[in-house]
Amino acid sequence: MNWKTIFNPFERFDDKLLLGIGILATILAILVGYWTGTYFSSIYRINSLDKVTFQAVAIPTLISFSSAIAVLFILGKILNSKTRLIDIANTVLISQLLLVILQATDKISFIKEAPKKVIAHQKHPSDPLPVLDIAIMLTMASVTIIILIYSITLYYNGFKTATNIKKWQHIVLFAAASMITTLICQILLSKYF
């Protein structure tokens, strides 16, 4: 295994294996969401729920993933008529896999408490500096950024592999379609959940 495989598993692994892993990732996202009281309001956006039910987690998560798959598939067919649905589904589902880690951090108490302690210190600056809490916050920010960059890389590389795009105009269309889909999902799902 080399760096290319890590950043573009779509070229190396069987599409059915990737789809299986993507479906497991979706199930895991729903189960972790139920455990943490969170859901995906779009790809790359995790929201909290006031009233946690299995449906309140599963429905918006499935809608957000499905809408991203649908929009990318339509765009893929426009850019390359040989684009396959399984490749686009793998792109979206595999790219969201590591975000489940971020979803699970909502249940780790010392991570949730660190920002509260730092804010409390700002109100009482004469108290000892909460160095450990600041380190936890910086570490979590770094881990979050790394996971997001990797996830976006998988998302882009998966679409590029599925559609064989090379022109910068196609890349701009991909980015615009992804952003618009993400925003529309967030707006629509925030009204209902």
UniProtKB/TrEMBL annotation:
Pfam families in the record: Yip1
The UniProt entry's GO CC annotations, sorted and at most eight, read:
membrane
| Name of the protein described by the UniProt record | Yip1 domain-containing protein
Q: Which InterPro entries does the annotation name? A: Yip1_dom (IPR006977)
Domain Yip1 as annotated: residue spans? 5-185
This protein's membrane topology, according to the annotation, is:
Multi-pass membrane protein
Q: Which branch of life, at top level?
A: Bacteria
TM regions (residue ranges)? 17-37, 57-76, 88-105, 134-156, 168-189
List where in the cell it is found.
Membrane
Keywords in alphabetical order: Membrane, Transmembrane, Transmembrane helix
